[in-house]
Amino acid sequence: MEICSHISRIKVTFVVYVLIVNIIIIVENVRSEASPMLENISSSCLTKQSVLGGEHMVCVNATPSYFQYSGLKLNRSHWLTCVRCNLNVIKESTFNFPKNNVSYLNLTDNNILTIEPYSFGKFHILKFLSLKRNPIETIDAKAFNGLRRLLHLDLSFNRFKIVRSNTFAELESLDILNLNWNNITYIHNDAFVGLMNLKYLYLNYNKIKTLLADSFKHLTNLKILYLENNRIREIHPVAFNNLRNLNYLYLNNNSISYLVQYNFKQLSSLVDLQLRSNSLSEIQTSSFNGLSGLKFLYLGQNNLTRIQPYGLIGLNSLLILDLIGNNFKQFSLDNFKNMNSLTTLWLEKNKLRSITVNEDSDPLPALKILDMIDNSLRSFNYKLLSEKLPNIQDILIGKNRWNCDFLLKMYNYYSVRNVSVCLDAKCNANETDQFIKTNCSNVSFHRDSKGRQHHPGEKTGIIEDDEEDAEQNDFVLDSEVVNNGGSNNFNISNLSIGVLLLLLRTTTTTTTNG
Ligand SMILES: *[C@@H]1O[C@H](CO)[C@@H](O)[C@H](O)[C@H]1NC(C)=O
Ligand SMILES: *[C@@H]1O[C@H](CO)[C@@H](O)[C@H](O)[C@H]1NC(C)=O
Ligand SMILES: *[C@@H]1O[C@H](CO)[C@@H](O)[C@H](O)[C@H]1NC(C)=O
Ligand SMILES: *[C@@H]1O[C@H](CO)[C@@H](O)[C@H](O)[C@H]1NC(C)=O
Ligand SMILES: *[C@@H]1O[C@H](CO)[C@@H](O)[C@H](O)[C@H]1NC(C)=O
Ligand SMILES: *[C@@H]1O[C@H](CO)[C@@H](O)[C@H](O)[C@H]1NC(C)=O
Ligand SMILES: *[C@@H]1O[C@H](CO)[C@@H](O)[C@H](O)[C@H]1NC(C)=O
Ligand SMILES: *[C@@H]1O[C@H](CO)[C@@H](O)[C@H](O)[C@H]1NC(C)=O
Ligand SMILES: *[C@@H]1O[C@H](CO)[C@@H](O)[C@H](O)[C@H]1NC(C)=O
Ligand SMILES: *[C@@H]1O[C@H](CO)[C@@H](O)[C@H](O)[C@H]1NC(C)=O
Ligand SMILES: *[C@@H]1O[C@H](CO)[C@@H](O)[C@H](O)[C@H]1NC(C)=O
Ligand SMILES: *[C@@H]1O[C@H](CO)[C@@H](O)[C@H](O)[C@H]1NC(C)=O
C-alpha cells in the first residue's frame, strides 16, 4: 500500500491488479515518465502525458478484439502506442473510433501479419504511423486509404518481397516513407502512385537487383532516395525518369559494375551522388552527363582502373570527387577538362605509380586539396602540377614511396609558395618536417641516375622526376658534395632539417628571382 500514497490517483482495484500481475513494469513506467499520473482507463491501456503535453495512451498486450469491443475512448488522446500487442490481422473494424484525436499511432513490434482495406480509415488526422518490426508480407492496395494527412509512414523491418501498384495511393501528404530492411526484390512502376508530396524514400537493406524503367516516375517531389545495401547490378537508362527534384541519391554498397551513357540524365537537380562500394571498373564516356548541378560524387571503394575519354564530361559544378580505395595505377588530371569548380580530389588508397598532367591542358583553377595518401608514388612533376593547380592549398602525401631527393625539393618548392605538404588530413606541417628528417636522414642523396636528358615521357607530362629543377637545386647540393670529399653522396643527417630547408629555400628563391 506504500505505492498508493505516492500515486494517489490510482484506484485500489488497479493497484491490486498491478501488484499481482506486473508490478515491476508499471513501477518502471512511473519512474521513467516525467509526469507519473496514471489513469485506470482499462485493464490494458493507460494514459500518460505525451512529450507534447497531450494524452498518450499506451496499451500493453492488447488484441484486435480488445480495441473492437472494450469501449476504449480515444477522443482525448493524441498519441496511441501498442506495446507487445498481438494484432495479427488489422481490419476496418479493429480501430473503429469515429471520434478520435489521434495524430500519432505507434504499432511497432506487434506481430501484425495482415492489414486489410481501410484499416486506419477512422484516423482522420493521423500524421505518424509506425508499423516497424512486424512480419507483414503483403499489404492490400487500400490498406492505407483515408490517411490523407499522414506525413510519416514507417514500414521498416517487415517482410515485403514486392511493392505492389497503388499501395500508397491516398497518402497525398506523405513526406517520409521508410521501407528499409525488408526483402523487396521488385517494385511495380505504379507502386508509388499518388505520393505527390513524398520527399524521403528509404529502400536500404533490401534485395533489389535491377532498377527498372520508370520505377519512381510518380515521385516528382522526391528529394532524397536511399537504395544502399541492395544487390543492384543494373540501372535501366530511364530508371530515374521524372525525379527532377531529387537532390541526393545514395547507391552505396550494391553490385553496380557499369553505368550506361546518360544514366542519370533525368536527375537535373541532383547535388550528391554516392556510388561507394560497388563494382565499377571503369567510367564510361558520358556516364554522368546531364548532372550539371552535381557537387559531390563519391566513387570510393570500387575497382576503377581508368576513366574513358569524356567519362566525367558534364560535371561542371562538381566540388568534391572521391576516388578513394580504387585500383588506379596511373592518373591524369586531364580527365578534369572544364571542371572549373572542383576543389577537392581524393585519390587515397589506390596503386598510383604516376600522376600526370599534360603541358597543354587548361589549369584547374579551383582545386585546393589533392589527396594522394597511400599509393606507390615516388615522384611527380611538382612544378608543372603547381602551374596547373594555381590555387592548390593542401597536398596530402603520406604512405607512398617517395624518393628522398624528390621529397625535399618538392617540399621546399611548395613551402615557398604557401602550399601545405602534409602526411594526413590533419595537415600538420611539423609532422612532415619530422617525417623527412627521420626517414630521409640515412638515405644517401645522389643525382638522378638517368642524367640530365629529357626522357621521352616528359613532353606528355609523364614525369618520374623533375630534371630541370634538380639541376637548379643540385648546385647547392653539389657544392656540399664537394665539401664532403668529392663523393657523389650527400649525408643529410649531418645537417639539421631547418638548415637544410633554409638552404633549399634560399636556393629556390634565388633561382626564382634570377
Ligand atoms: C478500472 O479497471 C477495472 C478493470 O481492471 C474496471 O473494473 C474499473 O471499472 C476501472 N475503473 C475506472 C474508474 O475506469
Ligand atoms: C470523450 O470521452 C470521455 C471519456 O473519456 C467522455 O466522457 C466524453 O463524453 C467523450 N466526448 C465526446 C465528445 O465523445
Ligand atoms: C482534439 O485536439 C484539438 C487540438 O489538437 C483540440 O482542440 C480538441 O479539443 C481535441 N478534442 C478533444 C475531444 O479532446
Ligand atoms: C514506438 O514504440 C516502441 C515501443 O513499442 C518504442 O520503442 C519506439 O521508440 C516508439 N517509436 C517512436 C517513433 O516513438
Ligand atoms: C528474407 O527472405 C529470406 C529468404 O528469401 C529469408 O530467409 C529471410 O528470413 C527473409 N527476411 C525477412 C526479414 O523476412
Ligand atoms: C556493405 O555491405 C556489407 C555486406 O552486406 C556490410 O557488411 C557492410 O557493413 C556494408 N557497408 C556499409 C557502409 O553499409
Ligand atoms: C578488379 O579489376 C581487376 C582488373 O582490372 C580484376 O583482376 C580484379 O578481379 C577486380 N577485382 C574485383 C574485386 O572485382
Ligand atoms: C599563407 O597562408 C596563410 C593561411 O592560408 C595566410 O595567412 C598567409 O598570409 C599566406 N602567406 C603568404 C606569403 O601568402
Ligand atoms: C610547429 O613547430 C613550431 C616550431 O617548432 C611551433 O611553434 C608550432 O607550434 C608547431 N605547430 C604544431 C601544430 O605543432
Ligand atoms: C618514417 O616512415 C615510416 C614509414 O613510412 C613512418 O611510419 C614513420 O612515422 C616515419 N617517421 C616519422 C618521424 O614520421
Ligand atoms: C634508416 O634507419 C632506420 C633505423 O635506423 C632503418 O629502420 C631504416 O630502414 C633506414 N632507412 C634507410 C632508407 O636506410
Ligand atoms: C651520415 O652521418 C652520420 C653521422 O654524422 C653517420 O653515423 C652515418 O654513418 C652517415 N651515413 C652515411 C651514409 O655516410
From TrEMBL:
Keyword entries, A-Z: Leucine-rich repeat, Membrane, Repeat, Signal, Transmembrane, Transmembrane helix
Pfam family, one: LRR_8
GO terms under cellular component: extracellular matrix; extracellular space
Entries under InterPro entries matching the protein: Dev_Immune_Receptor (IPR050328), Leu-rich_rpt (IPR001611), Leu-rich_rpt_typical-subtyp (IPR003591), LRR_dom_sf (IPR032675)
Protein origin, superkingdom: Eukaryota
Transmembrane intervals: 12-30
PANTHER family xref list: SLIT RELATED LEUCINE-RICH REPEAT NEURONAL PROTEIN, VASORIN
Name recorded for this polypeptide: Leucine rich repeat
